From TrEMBL:
It is a multi-pass membrane protein. It comes from the Eukaryota. The lineage of its organism: Eukaryota, Metazoa, Chordata, Craniata, Vertebrata. PANTHER family: CHLORIDE CHANNEL PROTEIN (PTHR45711), H(+)_CL(-) EXCHANGE TRANSPORTER 4 (PTHR45711:SF2). Keywords: Antiport, ATP-binding, CBS domain, Chloride, Endosome, Ion transport, Membrane, Nucleotide-binding, Repeat, Transmembrane, Transmembrane helix, Transport. The gene is Clcn4. This is Chloride channel protein. Residues 600-664, 697-755 form the CBS domain. It is found in: Endosome membrane; Membrane. PROSITE patterns: CBS (PS51371). Signal peptide: none annotated. Pfam families: CBS (PF00571), Voltage_CLC (PF00654). The chain crosses the membrane at residues 68-92, 153-175, 195-215, 227-243, 255-279, 332-356, 368-385, 441-461, 468-487, 515-540.
């Protein structure tokens, strides 16, 4: 105990909080960051570095290193994301083929690699070589017949079940956050939400391994969405190595935005599309500096993947196509029809998938994730094997559907009846009547389309890594190829019709069915995700079809219009709302005529607002207030009578400050006065040391008046990324509006359940 006279001479003790202490400025799990404070802290840090850089050469070098650290992080993200994507692609190829057979000369070779190395492979039978043996040939020395088929069928199912069981077990035991696509959570994290462990090292490792397993198992899912999650895990890991990013959550999110771009870059081989995807779809705050860094990260990632060359075609993508026929204006009608189909499929998928996921969350089904994965895998494998279009990997299926039928194609889809007198160049084959192989392929594709539509609804959202891009593209590509073949045959048999007469003469190569598959794929992907600009860019980077931008744009815009007519939410936003994440979507419109006073707390009849006073509460009073409430922060007022606002103190920082004061300052006891002013209050003699907490006080909290329209308040929360704002009238505190209050009010105005917003 000391008297007031002694107290005045011990300023260094009272002001120990003028120096930062551990964990100040950090956030608790499942809470939202304060964007304004993070921005202010980064500005202060930068100002300090700039002023110090003039003092010595060493400080100048340190300032240069700080400036270049962002580019170094981008380089490291690009290198690791590209390497992981290449390894995943190679491993998926091998393990997918492992379900059907094995390479005797080198068991780690996929079917294609095995036959590349063989000297006995002919061009006509390029998929057959002595070194590659199906399981029936290896085990019972039979390649044909019922017993060989049944054995191969059985082993296909067993491998699929083995892969899926291993994947779901790894996720459940080691990294529960490795399940799903990851994009809804990435969007939420980039908007300022904290989910600790979601981008951790264990999540990165397990998601990479299990992604290979689930894609190889033949389930109706893709690896493209999860690759964005993997790249963001890389971004989080490398940003933790640099204090500039590890100590500032706002700066860390700039890195994660760029990492998302690198993820799409390696997923599709589309660096520009990746940058646009990050800008259009996932990022919340995207300054110009982040645009350049995203571009660089996507470039490095694409270059790294190209160096690994996982597809063996010296290209970044599996779906590279070269069409030799231009498109014609009359074809815009079927392209728009495919856009309508894509929009309807997107709406159907979102509604059915969300209904199933909600059922999974609210019933006993959610308690048995392993059993659910095993059952869906078994159903998928049993139904998929008999149909050649569902047996193969979805990426290979899309590649075949995109392909143009050249003279050397051996696919069933290219089984046309050739004119024996044809003497045209190889690249300019005219439209021909469909042969029996094409008709067989059409009904097999129709069955595959129905199967994919149904099974994808139940697969997406299970407790395994699951992307949606590739299954959506497969649905659209199958529908598009069937429409393309239909238009091609119509043009061939009825070339004298008025719609074909001007551009489709007999013997001409008029219609390219592969182009319709490409347009259908874009339409269905757009219907599910509601992407537009980035989708078109990804599609033409993915296929190399630069001159087909207009058909892709027409289909993407049509699918978005049709899908938006039934509901504005894409699949990712729908899953964000299903999980109750506090995501304030920039695309949502708020047009209701409510005021801040209608939303603020406390409302009429509720207990008064919990506040701190500037110099009249003891440490015990503050600790009691913290213990009895669960608020994230407290307004600080002059006194409870005047309620004049001074500032705002965060709950976490109050707890840390008092804890540190008790450890480092002997005079602080339970009845010590806590003050937030510059000078200590006048205290009677023999009073304990007061505790100065001005350093943790936000002296400029964002405030609005009670008559501010909620439309303006919502806009402020979106654009400034606020956690809360205080409601005042003539400087007197009336209440508080948090982000959760805003989201609940918006849900209420949209006739939705306001209690669905679960997190702060």
């Amino acid at each position: 105990m000391v008297n007031a006279g002694d107290m005045n001479g011990s300023g260094n003790l009272m002001d120990f909080l003028d120096e930062p202490f551990p964990d100040v400025g950090t956030y608790e799990d499942f809470h939202t960051i304060d964007w304004l404070r993070e921005k202010s802290r980064d500005t202060d840090r930068h100002r300090k570095i700039t002023s110090k850089s003039k003092e010595s050469i060493w400080e100048f070098i340190k300032s240069l290193l700080d400036a270049w650290s962002g580019w170094v992080v981008m380089l490291l993200i690009g290198l690791l994301a590209g390497t992981l994507a290449g390894v995943i692609d190679l491993a998926v190829d091998w393990m997918t083929d492992l379900k059907e057979g094995v390479c005797l000369s080198a068991f780690w070779y996929s079917h294609e690699q095995c036959c590349w190395t063989s000297n006995e492979t002919t061009f006509d039978d390029r998929d057959k070589c002595p070194q590659w043996q199906k399981w029936s040939e290896l085990l019972v020395s039979q390649s044909e017949g019922a017993s060989a088929y049944i054995l191969n069928y059985f082993l296909y199912i067993m491998w699929a079940l083995c892969f899926a069981f291993l994947a779901v077990s790894l996720v459940r035991v080691f990294a529960p956050y490795a399940c799903g696509s990851g994009i809804p959570e990435i969007k939420t994290i980039l908007s300022g939400f904290i989910i600790r462990g979601y981008l951790g090292k264990w999540t990165l490792l397990i998601k990479t391994v299990t992604l290979v397993l689930v894609v190889s198992s033949g389930l109706s899912l893709g690896k493209e969405g999860p690759l964005v999650h993997v790249a963001c895990c890389c971004g989080n890991f490398f940003s933790s190595l640099f204090s500039k990013y590890s100590k500032n959550e706002g700066k860390r999110r700039e890195v994660l935005s760029a990492a998302a771009a690198a993820g799409v870059s390696v997923a599709f081989g589309a660096p520009i599309g990746g940058v646009l995807f990050s800008l259009e779809e996932v990022s919340y705050y995207f300054p110009l500096k982040t645009l350049w860094r995203s571009f660089f990260a996507a470039l490095v990632a694409a270059f790294t993947l190209r160096s690994i060359n996982p597809f063996g075609n010296s290209r970044l993508v599996l779906f590279y196509v070269e069409y030799h026929t231009p498109w014609y204006m009359a074809e815009l009608f079927p392209f728009i029809l495919l856009g309508v189909f894509g929009g309807l499929w997107g709406t159907l998928f979102i509604r059915c998938n969300i209904a199933w996921c909600r059922r999974r969350k609210t019933t006993r089904l959610g308690k048995y994730p392993v059993l659910e994965v095993i059952v869906i895998t078994a159903i998928t494998a049993i139904i998929a094997y008999p149909n050649p279009y569902t047996r193969r990997s979805t990426s290979e299926l899309i590649s075949e559907l995109f392909n143009d039928c050249g003279a050397l194609e051996s696919s069933q889809l290219c089984d046309y009846i050739n004119d024996p007198n044809m003497t045209r160049p190889v690249d300019d084959i005219p439209d021909r009547p469909a042969g029996p192989g094409v008709y067989t392929a059409m009904w097999q594709l129709a069955l595959a389309l129905v199967f994919k539509i149904v099974i994808t609804i139940f697969t997406f959202g299970m407790k395994i890594p699951s992307g949606l891009f590739i299954p959506s593209m497969a649905v659209g590509a199958m529908a598009g190829r069937m429409v393309g073949v239909g238009v091609e045959q119509l043009a061939y048999h009825h070339h004298d019709w008025i719609i074909f007469r001007n551009w489709c003469r007999p013997g001409a190569d008029c219609v390219t069915p592969g182009l319709y598959a490409m347009v259908g794929a874009a339409a269905c992907l757009g219907g599910v995700t509601r992407m537009t600009v980035s989708l078109v860019v990804i599609m033409f980077e993915l296929t190399g079809g630069l001159e087909y931008i207009v058909p892709l744009m027409a289909a993407a815009v049509t699918s978005k219009w049709v899908a938006d007519a039934f509901g504005k939410e894409g699949i990712y936003e729908a899953h964000i709302h299903l999980n109750g994440y506090p995501f304030l979507d920039v695309k949502d419109e708020f047009t209701h005529r409510t005021l801040a006073t209608d939303v603020m707390r406390p409302r009429r009849g509720e207990a008064p607002l919990s506040v701190l006073t500037q110099d009249s509460m003891t440490v015990e009073d503050v600790e009691t207030l913290i213990k009895e409430t669960d608020y994230n922060g407290f307004p600080v007022v002059v006194s409870k009578d005047s309620e004049r606002l001074i500032g705002f103190a965060q709950r976490r920082e109050l707890i840390l400050a008092i804890k540190n004061a008790r450890q480092r300052q002997d005079g602080v006891v339970s009845n010590s006065i806590v003050y937030f002013t510059e000078e200590p209050p006048e205290l009677p003699p023999n009073s304990p040391h007061p505790l100065k907490l001005r350093r943790i006080l936000n002296l400029s909290p964002f405030t609005v008046t009670d008559h501010t329209p909620m439309e303006t308040v919502v806009d402020i929360f979106r654009k400034l990324g606020l956690r809360q704002c205080l409601v005042t009238r003539s400087g007197r505190l009336l209440g508080i509006i948090t982000k959760k209050d805003v989201l609940r009010h918006m849900a209420q105005m949209a006739n939705q359940d306001p209690e669905s917003i679960m997190f702060n």
